[in-house]
Design brief:
Blueprint: H1 8-19, H2 29-41, E1 47-49, E2 52-56, E3 66-72, H3 95-106, H4 114-119, E4 129-131, H5 135-152, E5 160-166, H6 177-180, E6 200-203, E7 211-215, E8 219-226, E9 230-231, H7 240-253, E10 267-275, E11 281-282, E12 285-293, H8 300-308, E13 314-317, E14 325-326, H9 332-339, E15 344-347, E16 359-362, E17 377-379, H10 380-400
Parallel strand pairs: 3-5, 3-6, 6-16, 7-15
Antiparallel strand pairs: 1-2, 2-5, 4-17, 7-14, 8-12, 8-13, 9-11, 10-12
Helix pairs in contact: 1-5, 5-10, 9-10
């Protein structure tokens, strides 16, 4: 038996318990308390800050640099069309509808080594499925990271190891990593003056244990064109809809000059439009929504200024904080991924990566394609594989970080 397999049963059990506890963003109290109780059972000292959980390895020392494992404990709401109760993690009839999709999905699944590959096989039993809301996003990462942290918890390490389980990720809330980054609770016995913002972070999200070394940000703009109302039959007024259409065409044709080596061009799409009150009234207002996925080549403020200069409509950002992210050049994290043969890629989805201010990468069990849709699931074998990969990654990181 591989060393990490002894953690798999506890990890699968905890994940099923988490799925059974509704934990939408801003309502994570119950699942936070439950995870906290299980960490206590595992002998892991930790602190609860709001609905966030933070733990440090037993031999934490302020003079050492720190590697953080981070995953989120909240979920989105259940999608329409679930074929089973989204809070029932062992619903076996869910196996049938996902089996064919799963087999296609698992073809060519990356392995860290031949040794790992021999342990990671196609499931033959419904016992390998954990179904339900949050099982894939992001419960698999939560329990696999807890297991890896548990493995190293009592060891004297040349770096500090830190576990941060955060809330409100799915809704970009201010009480999760955004708040936690500036308010990490200090370990027992450590002076308040010691600083421990982590130096490196692994962000747990469903990536099939591929290593995301870049992640697009998210910038949503609310556009409004203003005109003058009038009677359509008399050709009165200034049609705000026409102004908006002209601006939308300019946005469609706009080319951002700076191209990311990892992510390519900034992506932009107009996704909503609304105008008018009656068929015979020239609209004096037209509102539209622009969805933008930035790269690390642009700040969100820079994108806003560039697009506003193209438009007569007023563009108002909903949030300027959701920045793009990229693993630092010559990062030891990227070096570890290469040493282990992990496939690297650029992620189109956002995560808590954009809220940490240190060198980071994103990697976790499950598949992004299963997230935020009906009949969510993850495999116990994927979780076991992730535990082993995290442990190997941390061991390699410790050996080669300098």
């Amino acid at each position: 038996m591989k060393t990490w397999h002894k953690y798999t049963g506890d990890a699968a059990g905890l994940l099923k318990e988490m799925v059974a506890i509704p934990s939408p963003s801003f309502h994570e109290e119950d699942v936070c308390r439950h995870i906290s109780a299980r960490l206590t059972e595992f002998g892991i000292g930790h602190k609860v800050a709001g609905n966030n959980i933070v733990a440090y390895n037993r031999h934490f020392k302020p003079g050492k640099r720190t590697l953080m494992l981070n995953a989120h404990i909240d979920t989105v709401g259940p999608s329409d069309g679930y074929s089973f109760d989204p809070y029932r993690p062992d619903y076996e009839t869910a196996v049938c509808p996902v089996k064919t999709t799963l087999e296609e999905e698992m073809k060519g699944c990356p392995m860290t080594s031949k040794d790992t590959a021999s342990e990671y096989t196609m499931p033959l039993s419904s016992n390998d499925f954990i179904c339900g809301l949050g099982s894939n996003d992001d419960g698999g990462s939560v329990v696999a990271m807890i297991s890896a942290f548990r493995h190293f918890y009592e060891m004297e390490l040349p770096v500090n190891l830190m576990l941060a389980l955060t809330c409100e990720e799915e809704r970009s809330g201010n009480g999760g990593m955004t708040w936690l980054w500036d308010h990490f609770p200090y370990p027992d016995g450590q002076p308040y003056s010691c600083a421990f913002h982590p130096d490196w972070a692994i962000i747990g999200e469903p990536t099939g244990m591929k290593a995301a070394i870049a992640e697009r940000g998210l910038l949503v703009l609310d556009g409004e064109a203003r005109g003058v109302s009038g009677h359509a039959a008399r050709e009165e007024g200034v049609n705000a809809l026409y102004i908006a259409i002209e601006d939308i065409e300019r946005l469609r044709k706009h080319e951002f000059a700076k191209i990311s080596p990892a992510m390519g061009k900034v992506k932009l799409a107009v996704t909503q439009i609304n105008a008018g009150t009656a068929h015979n009234v020239v609209p004096d207002s037209c509102r539209f929504v622009v969805d933008i996925r930035p790269t690390e080549m642009y700040g969100n403020e820079e994108i806003l200024r560039e697009l506003q200069a193209e438009c007569r409509s007023t563009l108002t950002p909903r949030n300027l904080r959701n920045k793009s992210s990229a693993t630092a050049a010559n990062s030891p994290l990227a070096g570890c991924a290469k040493a282990l043969g992990l496939e690297t890629f650029s992620s189109p989805t956002t995560s808590d990566w954009m809220r940490v201010h240190c060198d980071a990468m994103k990697m976790g069990p499950g598949e992004s394609s299963r997230s935020h849709r009906k009949d969510e699931f993850i495999l116990v074998s994927e979780i076991s594989h992730a535990i082993g990969t995290y442990i190997k990654f941390i061991e390699t990181f410790i050996e080669n970080r300098l």
